[in-house]
Amino acid sequence: MSDSLTSEAPAPAPSTLPPEELDRLTDDIVAALKTVYDPEIPADIYELGLIYRVDIADDRAVAIDMTLTAPGCPVAGEMPLWVENAVGAVAGVKDVKVNMVFDPPWDQSRMSDEARVALDMW
């Protein structure tokens, strides 16, 4: 039924989408997420580890769980819309729903090596 980009979610039911279509959608969604930046941090939200879960349903509706670096982030109201717009522009995506979550809280351990290099946090 869905494909998850994180290992925290339970194993998804098998998708009825062809594997090559699911792979293309996954790659294109990740690429779209990498175009969204926190204006105060020079790294994209995907590499920062702000994306907790991405599920692609058989009807190509996408559900995203994301967080912020801090609950009081000044772009808290805008960033989900940026994510919806970026992912909604991916060819084949039917609908996008972004859920803001704060459990578990974000911390720097969620950042990729790429983000650590960009932020000089070694």
Topology:
Layout lengths: L18 H15 L17 E6 L4 E6 L12 H10 L6 E6 L12 H6 L4
Parallel strand pairs: 2-3
Antiparallel strand pairs: 1-2
Question: What report would you give on this structure?
Answer:
- There is one protein chain.
- The protein has 122 residues and is an alpha+beta fold.
- It contains three helices and three strands, in the order αββαβα.
- It has a three-stranded mixed beta sheet, covered by helices on one side.
Descriptive keywords:
122 residues, alpha+beta, GMP Synthetase, Chain A, domain 3, three-stranded mixed sheet, 3 helices, 25% helix, 15% strand
Could you give a quick summary of the protein structure above?
The chain has one domain (19-108): 2-Layer Sandwich (GMP Synthetase, Chain A, domain 3). It has 3 helices and 3 strands; from the N terminus they run αββαβα.
Approximate shape: globular
- Annotation, overall tally of beta strands: 3
Backbone structural class: alpha+beta
CATH architecture, by name, is 2-Layer Sandwich
How much helix is in the residues?
Answer: 25-40%
* Average pLDDT metric: 88
Q: Give the full name of the CATH homologous superfamily.
A: Fe-S cluster assembly (FSCA)
Number of contiguous helices: 3
**Could you describe the largest sheet, including whether it forms a barrel?**
3 strands, mixed
Separation, N- and C-terminal Cα atoms? 39 Å
Radius of gyration: 14 Å
Give the neighbour order of strands across the main sheet: 1-2-3
Q: What's the CATH topology label?
A: GMP Synthetase, Chain A, domain 3
Low-confidence stretches: none
CATH C-level name: Alpha Beta
The H-and-E topology, N to C, reads as HEEHEH
Number of domains: 1
Query: What percent of residues are in strands?
Result: 5-15%
